[in-house]
Amino acid sequence: MNWVTALFLLAVLHLAHLKVYSQEFTYSLFDTQDGLPSSTITALVEDDAGHLWIGTDAGLVRYNGYEFQHFYDNPSYRMAQVNALAVDSSGRLWVGTNTGLSLYREGVFYPVDVEGLDTASVQSLSVTQNQKALIATINHLFIIENIGENSQLVEKFESKGILKITEEVNGEIWLGTIDGLKRLSADSIENVIDDRVINQEDVVDILPHEESLLIGTSEENVYHYTFTDRQLEVVRSYDDYYHDFVSFERWDGHIWCVYGWLILSQTDTGATKIHYPPEWNIKLVNTSFVDSESNLWLGSTEGLIRIRKSAFLTIDHSEIESEIYSMMEDRNQTIWLGSNHGMVYQWNKDGVNAWEKPDDFEGEVIDIVSDANNNIWIASFWKGLVLLSNEEITRIHETDISELGPDIYDLHLDQDQNLWIGTYRGLFVRKNGQDHFISCDTLGIPNHCDVYQIKHGPSGIWVGASCGLYHLQNDRFRLMTLPGLTHDIPIRSLLIDNESIWVGTIGYGLRCYSFNNDQLHLQEVIDH
Questions:
Q1: Which of 70, 82, 287, 497 is in the most buried spot, having the most CB atoms within 10 Å?
Q2: Alpha carbon distance 8, 1 (integer Å)
Q3: Beta-carbon neighbour count of residue 325 at 10 Å?
Q4: For 89-110, what is the mean pLDDT?
């Protein structure tokens, strides 16, 4: 959709008084079947190249958006359970494990050999704005400068159970611990909120927010602490249904609370809850992270979860009473919406109007196309076609297409304005200027094939069918060989650009091909 269309749609949304609901979300779960060494995810961070680094109880993994690269058997870092990850301003990765600390730079791991850290279990870590590394072990907080292979210990404080290290924009360092909220000063660790004030709860995350702090505890309570009057109040109390509190995340323009069984955003207008799909049986979430593309990642004991905003909006209008099966924008910038029972809605700057259909036109309106003269073809799944030309309606029954009366799956107008019709009884074409349909059984596609989709690309017409992928060559359809698959794999969907042919199969995932020398060449497979 270009920017002109986008602006037009925004105007229509306003003028037609449509209700636009918030975006939905899509979910993915990655586990050992996808290449992770373990399904227990313990830490997450993104590097400057956009790669997601994943800590597990079996070592370190990097995800590039397509595959997982294992580092857990790399002898140059202390292989162990990864407890904490951080990336500094120079792009270096810090890896805290239960047997020490390592630094990853330019493809090489360097152990950080500071006395007391070389065998200690790192629980949390952070790199400050002034390039000091703060590393919390079970019993101590280490502060390191001259970050690199020759790191030097600056300070070492005795402090048990530091669970979270948070730096404000002004450089203030806050520590969430098993003993309450603490602050790091120049030469000591100060107690700010004793755990007795918060009912002996562990402080597991801290979020600076408008001259105050949000504090999340292990018992699912969320507190608000203001600096000016040092007041502490509960803003969200314990709820056993949510399970343990995990973290705060700024995501989708809101502050979200991540819990073991769901994530929640509280605003002035109410709460938004996102539940993990029940079939995943998520027992515990350990960590969270929002990447540069606004994906929310959650590390659980059942694998790596990705939640992202859907590209779809829910649009409501009082005139639209049924499901929408098809959509098309004509040359006059009117949006045509195909519904069931033969209903079609026209949506433009003046509002939404229902098209007055012929009485015998029923069924799901499965496709709508417009030709070069702005004539509109409307296809019902099981009741044939309607042609609208200069407000004149021509009814074409399914038996006019074929005596078999086929159900229709797809319409396509090619560059010569020939109308192609994909049906469950094969492919038919109505040549421009003619009024009868030709079965493509005579052109090479058997009429027992279901034809799901017809697309036009730089190399001509392509057809996805239940009996394979076909390409029109020299007025005949050729059944194409798909590398790695048999000829007759069902092809459900097609997407063709100037360089690639994307093929959606039934049972064999999404496959990308290049086409040259009359042959398909496999480029990529997405099968999950």
A1: 82
A2: 11
A3: 18
A4: 87
